[in-house]
Write a structure and sequence with these properties.
This protein is an alpha+beta fold and 289 residues long. The protein has 2 domains: 158 residues, no CATH class; 68 residues, no CATH class. It has 6 helices and 10 strands. It has a 4-stranded antiparallel β-sheet with strand order 3-4-5-6. The protein has a two-stranded antiparallel ribbon with strand order 1-2.
Length: 289
């Protein structure tokens, strides 16, 4: 009799017992099983730890992150079927193709990359009116850069420009006889985030240009120069640029104050994409000193 009652009890309780075991197994799996996927937050934390200064180590970490992007970005790119190799010629040189994972948005086709870069460079380099100034400005860079790039070698490395925001950029370097030119361009909207033409002794500066004036003081054009630069920076990037939050105040721009003697001036534009800091400054000295 006791055996029959036990069997009857097991028959009625077994479904509940098995259900309990299943729920327990699911909970344990969720708590203790390892993650099998990457998250963009993980990339950001690993690739670009929060530091006060942007360093080259941060860029190296971004390259490590790009390997994960390429591993996940294994989808076929349709236009690659039109080329026998992953490298093809463009008016700006050779472009090496790779597959990337884009967190959001529609990626610019690789075949349109060179055209987009050229358009962006021309927009940047011709923003200022050269007739307004007696010394070279961004507008004159277009002639110099655009004549050098076609004869140079071009390559790109996919990396994150701002890991905290989770977007991917083209990191493009041009190598020519007299130096290098590198830029970062958003892979989704085509916007160039920084352009390095030269490197100075202190490291690398984004948006670095040298301007020289030999005969006239710069005070007369200084106000117009500053206004145009602020207009350029705020309209192109939408950044809150003002004399108060630049590296140097506008007073430091008045380096050539003598009508009798000429002077030389160096002008730097810097945009640090890690700290989202755009700075502008001019240093100048009297030629006789």
């Amino acid at each position: 009799m006791k055996i029959m009652n036990l069997l009857k009890t097991l028959k009625t309780k077994t479904p509940y017992f098995l259900t309990g075991l299943l729920v327990l197994a699911i909970v344990c799996a969720a708590l203790f099983s390892p993650e099998v996927y990457f998250r963009i937050e993980d990339w950001a934390a690993e690739a670009n730890p929060q530091t006060e200064d942007a360093t080259l180590q941060g860029r190296e970490n971004d390259f490590i992150t790009s390997e994960k992007l390429q591993m996940l970005g294994s989808l076929d790119i349709p236009f690659l079927d039109n080329y026998s190799d992953t490298t093809f010629n463009t008016p700006l040189g050779n472009i090496r193709l790779s597959k990337t994972f884009i967190a959001s948005g529609s990626e610019i086709p690789r075949k349109d990359l060179s055209v987009t870069i050229k358009d962006q460079l021309q927009t940047i380099c011709t923003y200022f009116d050269p007739s307004t100034y007696t010394y070279t400005l961004l507008s004159e860079l277009s002639e110099d850069v655009m004549t050098r790039l076609p004869s140079g070698k071009m390559y790109e490395i996919v990396s994150l420009a701002s890991t905290s925001q989770g977007f991917v950029v083209w990191d493009v370097n041009y190598t020519f006889d007299n130096g290098t030119c590198s830029l970062l361009m958003d892979a989704v909207n085509g916007r160039i985030y920084y352009l390095t033409v030269n490197q100075n002794k202190n490291g690398y500066y984004a948006w670095q240009y040298d301007t020289w004036q030999e005969t006239n003081p710069i005070e007369e054009n200084n106000d117009l120069l500053v206004r145009n630069f602020y207009q350029f920076a705020t309209s192109y990037w939408g950044l809150p640029i003002s004399p108060e939050n630049t590296r140097y105040s506008t007073n430091n721009l008045l380096g050539c104050d003598s009508l009798e003697t000429g002077c030389s001036a160096e002008m730097y534009y810097q945009f640090d994409f890690y700290s989202n800091l755009f700075t502008f400054y001019v240093t100048s000295k009297d030629e006789e000193s």
